[in-house]
């Protein structure tokens, strides 16, 4: 995956609070086995830490500005995105939101942007206070995406993903798929408390995977607002394979087999590795969000 070296990045869409101290109550989610279990549970993208029972019980304080707000200082152009993980995240957020803004407009709708917050260790949100062990998540309460970049190392080392830039892009695009669901009123279908391979929780996750694929289909043709040219200039089949590999790595069956030694479909919240790959592929091949009706 390559970005246009000369494109300007919009860092206003990403808030960098890495290194900030977040006041609040005592955290109950830590490292080691407990943290790993929390990470697995936290992969229920779209559900904030409070609903997962991972909130520390303290006030949902807002992050303060970090003196190390690196993205604002260092992520200026597409060239930076081609060399730095944090700048790549900015560029992917820009590309994803450019696409959905234009797609909503094409459908006579209005897209409300969502900011991504980069944090480290611990963060306060409208969905509760969480540690980085929760993994990436979208909080409907403040309509923001929360991401500790260390998760991408976890995805490779603990979950067995091949990694790569587009694996990271898939995760970000999946989170914004939840934002699209929130705007369209479908995200709350996952809140009925049911689990299982045929549950709404799984259907919501698979639809977000499909929406990520829809964006990927258009990623190299969606014009950047600053240049009129696509921000992403190259997306190869190897990139797509990395994305599919990441989707499979966080399939319920893969995670359960790896961490509990057996597969229990009645407790699924995301869908199997094959389903996640299938729905990403559906969106990628057609590029039409109408094909992402996982509730049929």
Describe what this molecule looks like in 3D.
The chain has helices at residues 32-42, 49-52, 70-74, 78-81, 85-106, 151-157, 165-184, 200-218, 237-249, 252-260, 273-286, and strands spanning 2-3, 14-16, 116-118, 122-125, 128-131, 137-139, 144-147, 232-234. By secondary structure, the chain is of the alpha/beta class. The strands form three sheets. It has a four-stranded mixed beta sheet. A two-stranded antiparallel ribbon has the order 1-8. It is globular and about 50 Å long.
Features:
8 strands, 296 residues, 4-stranded mixed beta sheet, alpha/beta, single chain, two-stranded antiparallel ribbon
Fraction in beta strands? 5-15%
Widest sheet: strand ordering: 2-3-7-6
- How large is the count of helical segments? 11
Outline the low-pLDDT stretches.
23-41, 43-68
**What is Rg?**
18 Å
Shape: globular
Please estimate the helix content. 40-55%
- Biggest sheet, open or closed, and with what strands and sense? 4 strands, mixed
Distance, first to last CA = 33 Å
Helical/strand content category: alpha/beta
Strand and helix order = EEHHHHHEEEEEHHHEHHH
The whole-number mean of residue pLDDT values reads 85
Structure described in brief:
This protein has 296 residues and is an alpha/beta fold. The protein has eleven helices and eight strands. A hairpin with a 2-residue loop joins strand 4 and strand 5.
Give the SSE map.
Elements: E1 2-3, E2 14-16, H1 32-42, H2 49-52, H3 70-74, H4 78-81, H5 85-106, E3 116-118, E4 122-125, E5 128-131, E6 137-139, E7 144-147, H6 151-157, H7 165-184, H8 200-218, E8 232-234, H9 237-249, H10 252-260, H11 273-286
Parallel strand pairs: 2-3, 3-7
Antiparallel strand pairs: 1-8, 4-5, 6-7
């Amino acid at each position: 995956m390559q970005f246009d070296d000369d494109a300007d990045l919009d860092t206003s869409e990403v808030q960098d609070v890495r290194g900030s101290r977040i006041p609040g109550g005592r955290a109950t989610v830590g490292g080691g086995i407990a943290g790993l279990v929390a990470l697995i549970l936290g992969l229920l993208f779209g559900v904030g830490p409070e609903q997962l029972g991972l909130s520390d019980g303290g006030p949902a304080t807002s992050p303060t500005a970090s003196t190390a707000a690196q993205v604002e200082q260092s992520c200026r152009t597409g060239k930076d995105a081609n060399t730095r993980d944090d700048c790549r995240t900015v560029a992917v957020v820009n590309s994803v939101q450019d696409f959905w803004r234009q797609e909503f407009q094409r459908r006579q709708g209005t897209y409300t942007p969502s900011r991504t917050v980069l944090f480290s260790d611990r963060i306060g949100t409208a969905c509760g206070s969480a540690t980085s062990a929760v993994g990436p998540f979208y909080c409907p309460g403040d309509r923001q995406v929360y991401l500790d970049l260390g998760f991408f190392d976890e995805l490779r080392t603990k979950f067995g993903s091949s990694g790569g830039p587009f694996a990271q892009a898939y995760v970000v695009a999946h989170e914004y798929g939840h934002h699209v669901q929130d705007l369209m009123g479908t995200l709350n279908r996952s809140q009925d408390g049911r689990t299982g391979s045929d549950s709404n929780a799984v259907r919501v996750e698979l639809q977000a995977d499909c929406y990520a694929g829809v964006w990927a289909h258009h990623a190299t043709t969606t014009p950047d607002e600053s240049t009129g040219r696509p921000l992403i200039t190259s997306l190869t089949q190897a990139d797509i394979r990395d994305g599919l590999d990441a989707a499979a790595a966080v399939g319920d069956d893969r995670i359960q087999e790896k961490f509990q030694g057996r597969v229990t479909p009645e407790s699924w919240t995301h869908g199997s590795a094959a389903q996640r790959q299938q729905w990403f592929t559906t969106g990628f091949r057609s590029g039409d969000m109408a094909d992402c009706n996982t509730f049929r």
